Amino acid sequence: MGRRAKNKQDVPLPLEQERATGKVTKVLHDRLRHEKIQTRKRTANVGKTAPGKRAAETKAATSKRKRDEEAAKPKPKPKAKKTKVVEPESEEEEEEEEEEAESVVLLEGAPDDGWDNAPMASDSEDDGASMSEFDSDDDDDERQEPIALLQSDDEDSDSETGGMESYDEFDTADEDGEPVTFRDMEKRSRLLEAQQKAEEELAELEQLAAEEAAEGERALFTLPSAEQIEAEKEAPLDLQQVQLRIQEVIRVLNNFADLRDPERSREDYMTQLKRDMCFYYGYNEYLMDKMLQIFPVSEAVEFFEANETARPVTIRTNTLKTRRRDLAQALINRGVNLDPIGKWTKVGLTIFDSPVPVGATPEYMAGHYMIQAASSFLPVMALGPQENEKVLDMSAAPGGKTTYCSAMMKNTGLVVANDANKEREKALVANIHRLGISNTLVCNYDGREFPRVMGGFDRVLLDSPCSGTGVISKDASVKINKSQDDFTMLTHLQKELILSAIDSVNADSPTGGFLVYSTCSVTVDENEAIVNYALGKRPNVKLVDTGLDFGRPGFTSFRGHTFNSSLSLTRRFYPHAHNMDGFFVAKLQKTSNKITTTDDQVIVPTGSGARIKHKKRRN
Ligand SMILES: C[S@@+](CC[C@H](N)C(=O)[O-])C[C@H]1O[C@@H](n2cnc3c(N)ncnc32)[C@H](O)[C@@H]1O
């Protein structure tokens, strides 16, 4: 179904934050390097005009280079007086030292990298190597005018030594019969390097000019005719051809006025694009349409691509049993290659590779960590359960979030872990035991039975059942097995669950009064639309900031529907943007336990449940 996941792992962190950590891992280095190349390309493309103009620019660059080269040629020097000779250090050595110094400064001055400042064995030489590679890239940029720099360096050193020809005499002469001295040799070799660099830059410019000329000459892309589409049903194109057509159609759509076939409408292009993307990525038309409603086409492709790649394996330290640095050290000793997930969590680790299954290490068995997706940390962080509180996890199995709540509460207070699926609760119970959790009560109700079962919670987490469109990289069957009916049923359930969850919160809680609603889906009808519905039905709740400092704001309008403007306080996370599962997090605060709803009901939640009184209608 679609293309196979490549199982490539990466750090689940927005690039801006990765940079902010100051640590340069191999992965980050590659990504930065890639970005740099892209930036260079973009810079080169800025002001791209006609191929002719590019050619003129290239010509101008060539003659400038020639002028510079001419100016840089070593000139015959007057004989200098003999003087005491101090052999200068080679430029390479100086550069190396500078690079080292820069690396050290960068590492020392690096902001908190998420390790609580603990030196870790995983901060290995590789990182240093990556760092210096990265630095040398920078050097390239700084040496935009190598020849000019070379000249001024030479002048400086000459004046410092008062001309020191005598110490470096050689028995050689150049083509013009001039004696070649050691200093000349050095200078000539630097000149050669500079020339080579200039030639490389010229070649790059010429390559760009050639690409642009080819682009200009490329034939107008034409959509396949109805007959061709029919023929493709019998003899489908191969994936590569389809991918090329996807790119072409997107190119046309992005510059429709100039590149369109006047006989074809935007709709025609979109229809072909959807057909090709369904085939290439293996989605059904219904879901493809849904995704294209959320993302602009180019971003949709990024999303589909990200879904073909497994997200990084991440684990959460069980702080009831260990500290992250100790856990990391123990795993490193077993040959596990890991790093902190990012600045935003003090308990998460990304596992890059491991000689042993991470679900079978002695540390795992001893309950020192939970294998848990990075995105799954977020709703619990937003909920922020406190010690000694009473917390409800309304749909808890298999328990990643329940056990995180317990750890945050330091095993105090009470966590009610409920799930409607008894089978799934086996894993929940096993995790609770393994992680040494003692403040949790497991129950098996339909969440909609709350708060009749129990109410008055300081905080409630509703990690709702959903379509799973955010976790397609884990479960590719979502691509084809979701229909309109599924979404209708799911959203109905979600609406009922969120009202039950709100009614289970005690607005008068001295420490809490909060609800977090989350899903691992990216569709608007399972997220913003559900929260917007709840705001309408329960005027005694309001959206508050999630406290998560990344993620995109939720939609405040969508396809003609306008939501409450506070929906911008919700957060969306995407695989292609945040390198974690697609996720949605909303945090609500309950302001009162009493409400009069628009449909004539007064709801009075009590400590153990809610009584719903229907007002008698007066005729
Ligand atoms: C997204 S999963 C929860 C994952 C869990 N919070 C965790 O972090 O491990 C959704 C859960 O909702 C449960 N569920 C489905 N319908 C439910 C209902 N009506 N009431 C309560 N739980 C329900 C499912 O059994 C499933 O375990």
Automatic annotation (TrEMBL):
Residues 74-83 have a biased composition (Basic residues). Residues 16-38 have a biased composition (Basic and acidic residues). One of its GO terms (molecular function) is rRNA (cytosine-C5-)-methyltransferase activity. It is found in: Nucleus, Nucleolus. This is Nucleolar protein 2. Residues 188-215 form a coiled coil. It comes from Linderina pennispora. S-adenosyl-L-methionine binds at S395, A396, A397, P398, G399, G400, K401, D419, D446, D463. InterPro entries: MeTrfase_RsmB-F_NOP2_cat, MeTrfase_RsmB-F_NOP2_dom, Nop2p, RCMT, RCMT_NOP2, RsmB-like_ferredoxin, SAM-dependent_MTases_sf. One of its GO terms (cellular component) is nucleolus. The active site is at C520. Residues 303-591 form the SAM-dependent MTase RsmB/NOP-type domain. Keywords: Coiled coil, Methyltransferase, Nucleus, Ribosome biogenesis, RNA-binding, S-adenosyl-L-methionine, Transferase. Belongs to the class I-like SAM-binding methyltransferase superfamily. RsmB/NOP family.
